[in-house]
Structures are given as structure tokens and as C-alpha cells.
Design a protein that fits this description.
This protein has 216 residues and is of the alpha/beta class. It has a single domain, classed as 3-Layer(aba) Sandwich (Rossmann fold), CATH 3.40.50.150. The chain is 32% helix and 25% strand. It has a 7-stranded mixed sheet. It has a two-stranded antiparallel sheet with strand order 1-2. The longest helix has 16 residues.
Length: 216
């Protein structure tokens, strides 16, 4: 069984997040090589992209927003869905959230979140189960970045977050205007995010933080 933490430490380096330099993450330098090495580590092909290895534009925008607007999460319980590297969860913890849970089904993400939380001196609970098909747990705030790569996943996320909002949770989503992002959310802030050329179509990516309004 792969040692996910050892793999991450061997093939990435702790670097500041370009648009959120207050936070450092274990980051890869090139998407193709880290993707191929991950497949070799697992002896399996057709893996999903290594979302844990880079600070993606939507996550950077949401993390930036939380640090710039700490009252959004200060003193509150927070769940970060599809956490990837843990960037957004770490920002929530640094902004004063009383309890932060980071969720991702990828075991490499779980290892990366643990390493990155330690790197930034914050305490984050990590869960690897699929939360989208379950009843949303009580939480003051739900967070997610970069959830609209695929139509099915975007729809599943939106359905889950609508259920969470109906239970009284606040929902914030960071997204760089991807094709499958849903309509009808409230724009909170816009950012020009510095990105990795290998994973985006430009070195600067416009990204927005959105709020899902509770149904009335």
C-alpha cells in the first residue's frame, strides 16, 4: 500500500500559494510528471487529476476571501468539501473558525491536507467518505472551491449545498468561471488569481466567490 505522505514529501515542495502567500502548501512543479508518478505509485492508470498538488484558482479565490473577511467563519464550524490540498480549510482555520473539517475521497488529498495543516500550524479534521449522498451534517458554513469541472459533479455539489442551505448553513463557493458552474448564486468578490500554467489556460485567471442563498 502506498505511503501517501512519503510520496508527497518526495515529489513536491512547501511553497507559498501565489495569491494567498500567507499560506504554504506542498506543491508540484508540473502537472504531467506528478500525475504520472502518482499512477506509478498506485500501479493504476486513468487517475483523476492530482487536485491535491496545486492551488487551483477557485480555491485560491475562496481562501483569499476568507482571510480578507474573517468574520465569515470566525467562531463557526466549517466543512470544506472536495478539499484537495486543504487550502480553503486552512484559510478557514487561520481566519478563526472554531472547528474545521476537510473532506475529500482521494487518499492522496487526505495525506496532503494533513501535511499542509501541519505546515501552517492549524488543526483540521480530515474525512475521506463521500458526503454528497448523505444528509448534510450540521455546520455553520460549507465551503468548496473548483467544483464545476464536470457537469455531473457540479450538479451533485449544488444539490448537496442546497440541502445544506435549507438546514441553515451558509455556503460559499470559489470558481474561475468554469463551464458547468450553476447560475443563480450571489457574487461576493472577484479576484485575478495567479495560477500554474500547466493546469490553467493562462497565468492569471479571473475567479469569483459566490454565496448560495437560502431558499425563501
Amino acid at each position: 500500500m502506498p505511503d501517501h505522505k512519503a510520496f508527497i514529501e518526495a515529489h513536491t515542495a512547501p511553497l507559498p500559494v501565489p495569491s494567498v502567500p500567507e499560506i504554504r502548501l506542498w506543491q508540484a512543479q508540473a502537472v504531467t510528471s506528478i500525475w504520472e508518478m502518482t499512477e506509478a505509485d498506485l500501479e493504476r492508470e486513468q487517475l483523476p487529476p492530482p487536485f491535491w498538488a496545486f492551488p487551483w484558482a477557485g480555491g485560491q479565490a475562496l481562501a483569499r476571501y476568507l482571510l480578507d473577511h474573517p468574520d465569515t467563519v470566525r467562531g463557526r464550524t466549517v466543512v470544506d468539501i472536495a478539499s484537495g490540498s486543504g487550502l480553503v480549510a486552512i484559510a478557514a482555520a487561520l481566519a478563526g473558525a472554531v472547528q474545521v473539517t476537510a473532506n475529500d475521497i482521494d487518499p492522496y488529498s487526505a495525506a496532503a491536507i494533513a501535511l499542509n495543516a501541519n505546515l501552517n500550524g492549524v488543526d483540521i479534521a480530515i474525512e475521506t467518505g463521500d458526503l454528497l449522498s448523505a444528509v448534510p451534517r450540521p455546520a455553520d458554513v460549507y465551503l468548496a472551491g473548483d467544483i464545476a469541472y464536470e457537469k455531473g459533479m457540479s450538479a451533485a455539489m449544488l444539490s448537496f449545498f442546497r440541502r445544506a442551505a435549507a438546514q441553515g448553513s451558509s455556503v460559499l463557493i470559489g470558481d474561475p468561471h468554469r463551464s458547468y458552474f450553476p447560475e443563480g448564486l450571489r457574487r461576493m468578490a472577484d479576484y485575478d488569481i495567479v495560477t500554474v500554467a500547466d493546469i490553467e489556460d493562462s497565468g492569471i485567471k479571473a475567479a469569483t466567490v459566490w454565496a448560495l442563498e437560502q431558499a425563501r
